[in-house]
Design a protein that fits this description.
151 residues, D-tyrosyl-trna(Tyr) Deacylase, Chain: A, 6-stranded mixed β-sheet, two-stranded antiparallel sheet, 2 helices, 36% strand
Length: 151
């Protein structure tokens, strides 16, 4: 599993001209799943997202988590995070999980993330063409891959 986490002052997802979800201060999480992902991958990434200290404290130091600031989270599925670009100019998505595998993982990810955040996590719509708007606060952007855990 691979996620791109962006600290945002606001973010929204629009589908067919209608805003499906929007948040204020918090995290936009772009999430991509591989066919080999499992509950351990979800749990590890969720723990990282919830505990990541990337919000400023009173001294202006990134020392607080999204939970500490009572921030919101918007999750958008994005299979293109697993693009392979080694050969040619057309990316290969062979490692991205097919929908029958990715959808249950995505739903479990959102549900477990919401339980850990102790509030609803908003989402886009799996497989839909989405327009994602955001104001990246910082900017702060972090990439985490459950298959490349740094110690």
């Amino acid at each position: 599993m691979r996620v791109v986490i962006q600290r945002v002052s606001e973010a929204s997802v629009t589908i067919n001209g209608n805003i499906k979800s929007s948040i204020k201060h918090g995290l936009l999480v772009l999430a991509g799943f591989e066919g080999i992902d499992n509950q351990d991958d979800l749990d590890w990434i969720i723990k990282k997202i919830i505990q990541l200290r990337i919000f400023n404290d009173d001294q202006g130091i990134m020392n607080l988590s999204v939970k500490d600031i009572e921030g919101e989270i918007l999750v958008v599925s994005q299979f293109t995070l697993h693009a392979k670009t080694k050969k040619g100019n057309r990316p290969s998505y062979i490692n991205a999980a097919p929908p029958q595998v990715a959808i249950p993982l995505y739903n479990q990810f959102v549900e477990t993330l919401s339980q850990n955040l102790e509030k609803p996590v908003l989402t886009g719509e799996f497989g839909a063409h989405m327009v994602v708007n955001l104001i990246n606060d910082g900017p702060v952007t972090i990439i985490i891959d459950s298959k490349n855990k740094e110690l």
